[in-house]
Design goal:
The protein is an alpha/beta fold. The protein contains 19 helices and 26 strands. The longest helix is centred in the middle third of the chain and has 16 residues.
Length: 556
C-alpha cells in the first residue's frame, strides 16, 4: 500500500522533530522520500493531529510459561473481561493476564506496534515462540534468562571467559533469542538450596560464585559479542525495603567497563528497586539517590510503574514471589525449570489506602520526573505493577501536575510524606512522551529501523486526536487520546481506526543471527547428557517454528 499522511504534527525525537507540520510518505511498508513516489497513493489528511512512531514496550510479560500459569490460576481475572469474536477479530479474555489475541489488539488500540517479551526460561522458549506467533499486529522479540544457569555459573567459577562468551552466543542461537536477561542473579538458585542472596557478594551455594561475578561475566560477554541490546537486568532484592543501596552498588559495576556506542546495562522496572527504610513501617522513597547514580553512569532504565487495582505478579524471581504470597496470603504457583530458573506467580491488589502501595505508586512517577527523559522508558512491568492498558493514565500523570495533585489528595498520606512527588512541578511535553514511550525503547533495544519516522524506517506509526500543546489541566482528554489512537499503521497498513482494530495483520519476531566457536557444542552436549532431562537436539529451536520472523546479524 502507498500512503501519504498529510499535515500531521510530528514528534520524532530520534530525528529531532518537535511538533512540526509534515507529510509522511509510505511505500511497501517503509517511509520514503516524497520524490520516490511515482504513482498515486491514498492520501489521509491529519491536520491538527499528533503523529508519532508506533509505541514500543521494551519490557512486558505477554507470552510464555508464567503467563499461561497466570491465566490458568486466575479464572476470576478472565471473567472480568470477556471479549467476543467480531469479524476478523478473535475472541479472548483477561484484564491483567490477557489471552494472546487480545494482547495484540489492546496494544494496537493505544498506538503500540512493538513489544518485547523480557524473560523466558531457555527450556521453555519453544512454547514462548509459539505464543508469540499467535499475537497479532505486534512485532516481538524474546530475552532468554541467564541468571541461574548452571553451565554459566560453573564456567564463571572456572574463570573460563571463552566458554562463557561462546555459550551466551550458543544459547541465543538455540532459543532464537534477542538479548541477555538476568533476574536476581544467583538469588533464585540459592533459594533452591534454602539460602538467600542479600548482597552482590553473597555466594551461590554449590557454585561458589557471587551476583557481582555473574553480572560482570555476562556484561563482558555481551560487550565482546557486540549484541544490539545491553544486559537487561532485574536487580537483586526486588521489593525489599532498603534495596536502593543494592541498586546503586549494581550500577557501579559498570564503572570497570569502557563506554561503548550504547549503554552497558539496562535496569528494568526500577520502581521496585528504589525502596529506602529498613522495614515496611518506615518504608520510603530512595529515588533521589538512585537517580543520581543513574545520571552518572552509562545505563538506561524503565520505570515499572505501579497503578492501583487488582493484577497478577509473575517473575523469574521465584523467592520474591514466595515472600509476596506469605505477605498477602493469596494463591501462589512456582515452577523450578531444571538448571535454569524458578519463576513464580501470585495475584495482588494494590490499594490507594495502603501506605506501602501509595509510596510505590509515587516512586514510579518520581523516576521519570527526576531523571532526564533520555534515560527513561515507561513500563508497568506488565502485569506486575499494572496491566499495560494503564499506559494512557501514566502518560497523563507525567503531563499533568494537576492530575498528580488530585491523586495525591486521594491516596494514603504516606505518598506525600515519604516521597518527593508533591514538590515536583515538572510536566512532560509530547516530545518527551514520544521519547519515553517509543524512541528510547527502539534505540536502547537496537531496533534501528523503528522508533523514528526517517527515510527507510519501517512504517509503524501512531496518530492521536490531540492538539500539539494539549491543556494539561484537561487530563481526561489526554487519557482518552492515548487510549484510542486515531490511526495505528503497522508496516504501512492501517490496523486501527478511531480506536478500533480493523485489520489484525500478523506481526514479526526478531532474533539474533549469531555465530560461535563450534567447540562449545561438545561442552554443551556433555552438560546436557549429565544434567538435563532432555537432549540438546530437542532443545534447539528451528526458524521454521517461528512462523514470521526476521534475523538481526551480529558482527562480534
Amino acid at each position: 500500500m502507498k500512503l501519504v499522511l498529510k499535515n500531521g504534527i510530528v514528534f520524532d525525537p530520534l530525528n529531532g522533530i518537535n511538533g512540526e507540520k509534515m507529510d509522511i510518505f509510505i511505500d511497501n511498508g517503509r517511509i520514503v522520500n516524497k520524490f520516490r513516489f511515482k504513482t498515486k497513493a491514498k492520501v489521509i489528511d491529519l491536520n491538527g493531529k499528533v503523529v508519532m512512531p508506533g509505541g514500543f514496550d521494551i519490557h512486558t510479560h505477554i507470552a510464555g510459561g508464567k503467563e499461561n500459569i497466570g491465566r490458568i490460576m486466575r479464572p476470576e481475572d478472565s471473567l472480568r473481561n470477556l471479549v467476543p469474536r467480531r469479524g476478523k477479530l478473535r475472541a479472548g479474555s483477561g484484564r491483567s493476564v490477557l489471552s494472546v489475541h487480545i494482547t495484540g489488539y489492546e496494544y494496537a488500540k493505544m498506538g503500540y506496534t512493538t513489544a518485547l517479551a523480557p524473560a523466558t526460561p531457555p527450556l521453555m522458549a519453544r512454547h514462548t515462540h509459539h505464543e508469540l506467533n499467535e499475537i497479532p499486529i505486534l512485532d516481538k522479540a524474546v530475552f532468554p534468562l541467564f541468571d541461574g544457569n548452571w553451565f554459566i555459573m560453573d564456567r564463571i567459577a572456572d574463570k573460563d571467559h571463552d566458554a562463557i562468551r561462546n555459550y551466551v552466543a550458543w544459547l541465543l542461537y538455540a532459543t532464537k533469542g534477542y538479548a541477555v536477561k538476568v533476574v536476581n542473579p544467583g538469588g533464585t538458585e540459592a533459594w533452591g538450596w534454602r539460602k538467600e542472596i542479600h548482597s552482590l557478594d553473597d555466594e551461590v551455594p554449590e557454585f561458589g560464585v557471587t551476583p557481582r561475578e555473574i553480572l560482570t561475566a555476562l556484561i563482558s560477554a555481551v560487550e565482546e559479542l557486540k549484541l544490539p541490546h545491553s544486559v537487561h537486568l532485574h536487580c537483586n532484592n526486588l521489593g525489599e525495603p532498603g534495596n536502593f543501596e543494592t541498586t546503586i552498588e549494581t550500577i557501579k559495576i559498570t564503572e570497570k567497563f569502557e563506554r561503548g556506542d550504547r549503554p552497558l546495562l539496562h535496569l528494568t522496572h526500577l520502581q521496585f528497586h528504589c525502596y529506602a527504610g529498613d522495614s515496611w513501617k518506615n518504608f520510603e522513597s530512595g529515588v533521589e539517590e538512585v537517580a543520581k547514580a543513574v545520571k552518572g553512569h552509562d545505563i538506561t532504565v524503565d520505570t515499572g510503574n505501579l497503578m492501583f487495582g487488582d493484577t497478577t505478579t509473575m517473575t523469574a524471581d521465584g523467592p520474591m514471589e514466595y515472600h509476596l504470597q506469605l505477605l498477602t496470603g493469596r494463591k501462589w504457583a512456582n515452577k523450578d525449570v531444571e538448571l535454569e530458573t524458578a519463576p513464580g506467580i501470585t495475584p495482588i491488589f494494590y490499594s490507594s489506602k495502603s501506605p506501602v502501595n501509595a509510596v510505590q505508586w509515587a516512586i514510579g512517577l518520581e523516576i521519570p520526573l527526576l531523571l532526564p527523559a533520555e534515560k527513561v522508558m515507561i513500563t508497568t512491568d506488565h502485569p506486575n505493577g499494572a496491566p499495560f492498558t494503564k499506559y494512557p493514565e501514566i502518560i497523563a500523570m507525567l503531563m499533568s501536575q494537576k492530575y498528580r495533585e488530585e491523586m495525591l489528595s486521594k491516596v494514603h498520606k504516606a505518598a506525600s510524606a515519604r516521597t518527593m512527588l508533591g514538590s515536583i512541578d515538572r510536566e512532560y511535553d509530547l516530545y518527551e512522551i514520544a521519547m519515553v514511550t517509543r524512541a528510547n525503547q527502539a534505540k536502547t533495544a537496537g531496533f534501528t529501523d523503528k522508533g523514528h519516522l526517517g527515510e527507510g524506517a519501517i512504517a509503524d506509526i501512531a496518530v492521536y486526536d490531540l492538539p500539539p500543546e494539549p491543556d494539561t489541566r484537561d487530563y481526561e482528554s489526554i487519557i482518552k487520546a492515548f487510549s484510542r489512537a486515531y490511526l495505528t499503521i503497522k508496516r504501512g497498513e492501517i490496523v486501527v481506526q478511531e480506536g478500533e482494530v480493523v485489520n489484525p495483520v500478523a506481526g514479526v519476531t526478531r532474533y539474533l543471527d549469531i555465530s560461535y566457536d563450534r567447540w562449545i557444542e561438545k561442552d554443551v552436549s556433555v552438560y546436557f547428557r549429565d544434567y538435563y532431562s532432555v537432549s540438546v537436539q530437542n532443545y534447539v529451536i528451528g526458524v521454521d517454528e517461528m512462523r514470521r520472523c526476521e534475523s538481526v546479524p551480529v558482527h562480534s
